[in-house]
């Protein structure tokens, strides 16, 4: 497959959401956080993801992957949160954008309801995530955080994930920065991410009175760059 990776534009958002909804349909985290499937609203979920991608296009690093011969179809997407050096406080623009996203999410919840989202579990996950990131993110240069990467089920195992990953990993290597992700599946994802140089460093447990899931936290060290000098 001849693949092309580009930065996501607003016109790509719908196709990107198709990849998320299809790739995560049976995902353990998705099934845990939307545990009452009879209440799951794909419409509300699409609105929620649209708000998130609109934010990500401006403030994150969002990519889409297509096959060159069929550029209308998005095969896979990734959203990364860029690193923040410990010495650089969050910019006002970034801070305000997070609040703007939050207000839009509140408005969405008022209009659409929760669409089956288990709010207690959402906050359990958020708290566990904040704790784990506080423990693991010890590098003052910050981490490229792969917030989400998805490939349409029919296109999985054909190099789309690698094409998406490689661009950001190359930037991270050039800058000498670490990358981080949380996978909701041990198999086969941990083995897939190991192929990209990530290592499993922690299992994050989110426990709702005995109904628990594990998320697999992985870190990738930068690969030192060759100077190109031959002695
Ligand atoms: C995880 C995911 C993003 C990987 O993307 P992909 O396009 O399927 O992966 P690729 O085809 O690019 O394969 C990447 C590498 O993993 C290897 N790989 C692929 N599937 C594998 C499997 N089932 N077991 C072991 N290794 C596998 C490939 O051989 C390749 O290595 P190589 O390039 O050295 O040969 C994709 O499968 C996906 O969206 N899964 C469902 C949603 C999901 O779990 N997302 C991640 C949440 S954290």
UniProtKB/TrEMBL annotation:
<dbReference type="Pfam" id="PF13508">
    <property type="entry name" value="Acetyltransf_7"/>
</dbReference>
<dbReference type="InterPro" id="IPR016181">
    <property type="entry name" value="Acyl_CoA_acyltransferase"/>
</dbReference>
<protein>
    <submittedName>
        <fullName>Acyl-CoA N-acyltransferase</fullName>
    </submittedName>
</protein>
<feature type="domain" description="N-acetyltransferase">
    <location>
        <begin position="82"/>
        <end position="220"/>
    </location>
</feature>
<dbReference type="InterPro" id="IPR052523">
    <property type="entry name" value="Trichothecene_AcTrans"/>
</dbReference>
<dbReference type="GO" id="GO:0016747">
    <property type="term" value="F:acyltransferase activity, transferring groups other than amino-acyl groups"/>
</dbReference>
<dbReference type="InterPro" id="IPR000182">
    <property type="entry name" value="GNAT_dom"/>
</dbReference>
